[in-house]
Amino acid sequence: WKEIKERINNIGPFPRYIFSNSPLYLQQYYEVKSSLNCITERTISEYIDILRGDGEWNDKSPSQDLLKVYRLAIGNDDFPRIAAFNNELNKSILVRVMEICRAPYLKFFFTDRGVLIAEHFEKLGVIAFTDKDFVTALGKELKIIQPPKGRVSQKSVLQRRDLITYASNGYDLFPTGINDVSRRIEYNMLYRPSISNFPLVDGFYFVKSEEERVTMIGIQTTTAKSHETTVTAVIEFNRYLKNCFSDWTDVSKEMSWEIIYIQPYDTDERRQIKKWQGCTLNESGNYNLEQQGITAKFWNEKVNQYQVNLSLGMAVRLVEALEGVRKEEKLSKIEDLIQIRRQEVHQEVNFN
């Protein structure tokens, strides 16, 4: 089985080749390698499109030895798509692309074996929600986490086409000091907390429909197999927002909450978040049982949860979105986005 698995990773799931004698398997193996070697500066855009999932089938291209055609069902509609035969070939394409294009931003997020670097993903992934193409593609891959007690699940607002569902106004540092000046909520503005131990989410923004319905999109990037929270975290989150936004009390009364858990594309099946992430009571703390009970009830009855296990194409889109932000802010390298946040946090600590 180990040898069969290795052959599948090398050439794809073709019984004719993986169960054949060595000459036939080796012939296909070298054809795949030859196709990878055809990735040059002249053809690299074709393969980047393939990584994103945007590529089109071209039977005259060497890439056809690496690809499959599949059907993507979205609602009642079917769409043809192409992709590499398996994740290992996807990684091989990515590694070859990185070798050719010498893009520092790709090498900052991926190892030389095409594996996403979790630390950088968790620190910066949330910023990709300022990119329209990324959020549109993400909406197609979101999976609903079934809510408890027989609640009817619903599609995410990110999947609506009649709204601006991404953080179109960019991103801003969310102030967490008690003396910060209060302001009104700015819709479609991504707020990044200024402290590392901010409760509940890594970032959030608000979307308003023409009917004046407001949805808060909370984003949590994680490599863990679960990410449950506590009532204390939810109460503290509300407290921060009430302190920051002068209109929070009124707006939050009819607001919908969506929590999106984003995991890297190579997350093991056993570590993918599939079950409802609960909100547990705290036996000790600053809040009485009545407050905690109200918060837990709200979490179980009003909050909607979604999960996405980023495909490699989505991971590439995420990194490209961050590279776009880096260029807009005229930073020399993508890791400066982390450095900026550290400086902002340091300034806020000194101010307080």
From TrEMBL:
Q: Which residues form the Retrotransposon hot spot protein,C-terminal domain?
A: 1-144
Q: Which Pfam families match?
A: RHSP
Q: Which domain of life is it from?
A: Eukaryota
* InterPro entries with a match to the protein in the record: RHS_C, Trypano_RHS
Record's protein name: Putative retrotransposon hot spot (RHS) protein
- Which species expresses this protein natively? Trypanosoma theileri
